[in-house]
Amino acid sequence: MFEFHKEKLFAYLMRMGGDYELSRDILQETFRRYLEHYSGSDASPSLLYTIARNAFVDQVRRQARQTPLDEEPCDRGNGAEHEMLIRESYHGVLDALKALAADEREVLSLAISSELSYQEIAEVMNLTVANVKVKVHRARKRIREILKGGQQ
Amino acid sequence: MRDELISMFIDDELDLDEKIDFVRQVRADEAFTDQAIEFLSLEKDLRAEVVERVPEVHVTSARKTALRVIRPVHLVAASLAAAAALFIFLFWPVHPDEPGEPYRFVIYRPDVSRAEIVGSFTGWDRVPMQRVGSSGYWEISLDIGPGEHRYVFLLDGDARVPDPTAVMREKDDFGGENSVLVTGTSA
Lengths: 152, 187
Known about the structure:
The structure holds two protein chains of two kinds. Chain A is mainly α. Chain A has a single domain, classed as PhyR, sigma-like (SL) domain (Butyryl-CoA Dehydrogenase, subunit A, domain 3, Up-down Bundle), CATH 1.20.140. In chain A, 74% of the residues lie in helices and 0% in strands. Chain A is built from eight helices and no strands. Chain A has helices spanning 2-17, 20-38, 45-66, 80-83, 91-99, 102-113, 118-125, 129-151. In chain A, helix 2 (20-38) packs across helix 3 and helix 5 packs across helix 8 (129-151). Chain A is globular and about 50 Å long. Chain B is an alpha+beta fold. Chain B contains five helices and nine strands; from the N terminus they run αααααβββββββββ. Chain B has helices at residues 2-10, 16-28, 30-46, 60-66, 77-91, and strands spanning 103-108, 115-119, 127-128, 130-132, 137-142, 147-155, 159-161, 169-171, 177-183. In chain B, the strands form two sheets. In chain B, strands 2, 3, 6, 7, 8 and 9 form a six-stranded antiparallel beta sheet that branches. In chain B, helix 1 crosses helix 2, helix 1 (2-10) packs parallel to helix 3 and helix 2 (16-28) packs across helix 3 (30-46). The A-B interface holds A 2, 6-7, 10-11, 14-15, 20, 24-29, 31-33, 35-36, 39, 55, 58-59, 62, 66, 77-78, 84-87, 89-90, 93-94, 108, 111-112, 117-118, 133-134, 136-137, 140-141, 143-144, 147 and B 3-4, 6-8, 10-11, 13, 38-39, 42-43, 45-55, 57-62, 64-65, 68, 164-165, 167-171, 177, 187.
């Protein structure tokens, strides 16, 4: 089951945080938490994404306690080797995602990474479906503007 | 709302009436067509592969789950002792939250001949970890008490490896990384 979801979950975490090492740690933590608390239940993708999102939020909070947030939340030391593993062509997209508001980045990351429906995304993010609908498109418009701006 | 049809189209969220509406819009309005195509092209970039290689993750508890169905009574006598040892190893809680319980550290490294742990709770003295049969795992249980702890595994004497199961890490003063563990509070 993990192998099946691993790639998409990892892509989701990369789009959320832009950091290879951090995404790997959170992926691991996600599977650990899943096994610890839910191993007897059905492995619904929305459950896995909910756990991953919570683990991500926990990590951001921890970082916030240790360093001022939003300075460079995505850059951690010892990352040159991992940086190389990010596709050259995707750096621009990651930068654009980083420039989105947190809720927009989150809803868009879920929409493009997971195979979750708007209904499921709404459950993961604790929003209404109508809200997801609006936010997801707003995020796409915004990232389009950012990427266009970058090309000029 | 019309705009949002494009995202709903991309995300496969349109019902049949909305699909009819969408097709009509695309046909009637060239600017809308261009816009839809632009968003679809953007989507290709957004959904492109992010990394060259997805990392390996060691889900140590996975073995716990995989063997959950095995009961000692079902095991043949010859393998009973080894299996029971592994069974205990796998079922022992890795990270008990109760204060006063020993905390169990585990690392999967079948390729090393020695594993030790050093940390704030050992006074930064090396404490050898025990090999768990031939499973490739090394383990140790320590009374670390509640609080914030820093530690790292030492493999084959000198390679410092942070705990792959611990999310938090921080740099030490020597250019390496330590794992950070907070106990006594729920996750």
